[in-house]
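Render this sequence as a predicted structure.
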Amino acid sequence: MQLETERLILREMVTGDFDALYRIFSDPETMQHYPKPFDEAKVHSWIDWNRENYQVFGFGLWAVVLKKTGEVIGDCGITMQNIGGKIKPEIGYHIRRDLWRRGYAKEAAGICRDWVFEHTTFGALYSYMKYTNIGSYSTAIANGMRLVEQFEDDANTVTKVYGITRDEWLEMKK
């Protein structure tokens, strides 16, 4: 499976993506909204988890590759997540810190959002994040999502949930 935008290719992760992904997930600033940066074992398990998701669900987080250079600069895709006690399809994204604020997360998330509504029966798609993660919720808003829920939890103190329904997406595409 492969998705393409003007500047990006999204493809299934492979074990050879480890170095590029480790650079992202081991960075304390990139991972400031997580409990801690990932160590090598966690990055390997992240790749394995996504490869398992491709087999089980037909989707997962995909490697985000710059078309111009072939370089892996992050991940973006769909996972099934427990959001406020319910399992929901969630779009997630991580982009290498030196490439922030260039629209790559928005571009990757947009093609993933479209893929979900074109290739699955999901009636809605969500993104959730720690309330302090301005970059993540700005990307969600830029892709047509709106704040649909906010709750207190042990992981994030306060979690914000953004969502878009199939009908809202269809209206946006007109």
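Summary. Helices lie at 18-25, 40-57, 104-119, 134-142, 166-173. The longest strand covers residues 72-83.
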